[in-house]
Amino acid sequence: MDSLHAIGFYVSSGVSVIGGLGVALLPGRELRGVSLAISGIGLAAVYVALGAGFAGAVALVCYLGCAVMVAGPRYRVMETVVGGPWRQVGAIGAGGLLAVLGFAAFRGSFAQGKPAGDGFALADIGRLLFAHDALATEAVAALVLVSVAGALAVWRGRERAR
Amino acid sequence: MTPTLITVLFVGAGLTAVGVFVVAWRRDASAALAGIPLILGGAGVAFVGVARFAAAGTPHLLGQEVAVLLAVAATALVALGLGIAGREQSR
């Protein structure tokens, strides 16, 4: 990995994590959607820096779609009934976990691996997705079908109820 | 400073921790759903990194394949969750 890729990796990692923090801390669904889009762009750049260009392209499209859904005005805010303070304690615990991970990465001595070759390799990925691991692809496709059909069904039910 | 496997794993763990933080911090469930793509994105970064820096025997495209599947699954889960959240609100 040359220095340009290394700089791109570190910058895009920071963009992705900062965008994620914006999703947590910024007020308003529009700002949260923009933050999620920024995080998705950073994540796609991380994939590209690691030589996974196809995954980066797919992640970019998917995360921009998620950002549009999160920022859109077509849903209402739903307050959860249970677990107010405990959720906040869990959030502080997640922050503590991040600090522990940072300390472990700073102090630990880990094995150094050598990177494999770069490449978009669409044909090889397609062979993996649709031939070697077709069951996993079918499972995700079924999940997408159920999600889209379920989302449409609940939205139609909601519109009828109005 | 060239990124290594531990750097990639640290980035993936950080993204997952930020996603958990989003889910735990936001009080309304509709906003907490935005943490799911971050959690799965962190897992995808870990998969891509391990497959890329693996010593031998593992095809490096396997992690890319899992990352693609995770991104698609995250989008589907957000769509379904927002639909259910909207329905719960209308009751």
Briefly characterize the structure.
The complex is a heterodimer of chains A (162) and B (91). Chain A is mainly α.
Write the layout of secondary structure elements.
The complex is a heterodimer of chains A (162) and B (91).
Chain A: H1 3-25, H2 29-49, H3 53-71, H4 84-107, H5 122-132, H6 134-161
Helix pairs in contact in A: 1-2, 2-3, 5-6
Chain B: H1 5-25, H2 29-32, H3 35-53, H4 61-90
Helix pairs in contact in B: 1-3, 3-4
What features would you highlight for this structure?
heterodimer; A: 162 residues; 2 domains; 6 helices; B: 91 residues; mainly alpha; Helix Hairpins
Descriptive report:
The complex is a heterodimer of chains A (162) and B (91). Chain A has two domains: 1-74; 121-162. Helix content of chain A is 78%, strand content 0%. Chain A contains six helices and no strands. Chain A has helices at 3-25, 29-49, 53-71, 84-107, 122-132, 134-161. In chain A, helix 1 (3-25) packs antiparallel against helix 2 (29-49) and helix 2 (29-49) packs antiparallel against helix 3 (53-71). Chain A starts with a helix and ends with a helix. Chain B is mainly α. Chain B has helices at residues 5-25, 29-32, 35-53, 61-90. In chain B, helix 1 runs antiparallel to helix 3. The N and C termini of chain B lie far apart (55 Å). The model of chain B has no long low-confidence stretch (mean pLDDT 81). At the A-B interface, helix 1, helix 2, helix 3, helix 4 and helix 5 of A face helix 1, helix 2, helix 3 and helix 4 of B.
